[in-house]
Design a protein that fits this description.
disordered N terminus; 18 helices; six-stranded mixed sheet; 39% helix; alpha/beta; four-stranded parallel sheet; elongated
Length: 469
Amino acid sequence: MMKENAKEVQNGSHLTQNENVSATSTNKDPTMTVTDGALKKSDEKAEVADEDLRDPFCDPDHPVKVTFQEVSAAAFKIRGGIERTPCSRSHMSAMTGVEIYFKKDYMQYSGSFKERGARYTLMMLNKEQKQKGVVAASAGNHALALAYHGSSLQVPVTVVMPIIAPMMKIQLCKQYGATVVVEGDDLGEAKKLAMRMAKEKGMLYVNGYDHPHILAGQGTIGLEIAEQVPDLDAVLVPVGGAGLIAGLALAVKAMNPNVKIYGVEPERCASFKAAIEAGKPVYTKMSSTLADGLAVPTVGVNAFVTALPLVDKVLTVSEEYIALAILRLIELEKAVVEGAGAVGLAAILSNQVPELKGKKVVIPLCGGNIDTTVLGRCIERGLAADGRLCRFVVTVSDRPGGIAELTKRISSIGVSLKDIFHERAWLKTDVFQVQVKCVVETRDEEHSKELENLLKTNYQIISFGANAV
């Protein structure tokens, strides 16, 4: 079992880039050793076969179980370079019946909690490795965090980003001083290229959610939460590769073992839930999701063995409630948060945690790097999920005054018409009738129900809501 093979990192000393990595001491490949955090090649072949691309820090056969001492060491080391973000009571507490506190780590300089692990990992490099630099594969926050802190600590950083990465994030990485390689159809291909570059050039490959120092660095958010809300009852943690929940749960449970840790994943990529069911990290088929930062098909091996005994419950949330959570945060908290950071709130809005009513609950808003195009779509989907954006199809008279009568009726109850489309050619009713498809804006779900009743009272052929096509 993985738990039996897990090696603990004591006092931050057993897994530094200054020493040989014991995780690979049993590696049967005689051509590879790991010294000073870099992959040393016993041969000088220019090409590296895919089967030789192993990350010695993330060995499935010998996973590393990070300890609280390592998190404490990370907190001490990074304290001068990381923002201590606020953890403030939410305006939504009364509305939801849960006393919510938002840990606002989207306020870090590069926009996410990833800075914690990135800075600690870079600070743990030895002199030689700092000169050679690091390489990572990322489509977003991990790349930004490494780029920013690499510039601050004068460590060369190369990031391989897939062609699907948002242009805004590519440009920001370049502005922070990183060498950016845009290649690969997806993150998997980008990772292979990054690991090949690491082996060929002697750079350290940094896994953004499973390197032990990354986990320890992410755990510092848990220390801050425990200090800022000392009597909390639960934490709802977003889960992608499981690096955040591993470090956070380790820190919070060490400070207060009675705190409940809930993992929250998007339904379209529930890889942590699948790993729990299988007893080990397994590949999980994923689909496109608003929480793209959590779309990791296989959770990290180190993250899994660290988090498994500490997580009390794992939840999955739908795209509808992720969009609604983003909307609520914009409207009520004045916070622009990406989908990955909003899943904790989505779990509360979808009524999946009734046992937390009246309890003090912390939700990490872990990232704010949302693409502006995606943000616009999220707002519209959130309005639709909230019953404030509705559509209907109704058949009305095509004689003069028919459309005017429809618009007059919907305006009489305060409904705002946003879009209207006429259809005549495929109608099979009276030739002097027209089918009208409308998108309207209402105050709330009750208001939209009032509109539906009004239309059904005055028109014979009406289709309302999701079925209106």
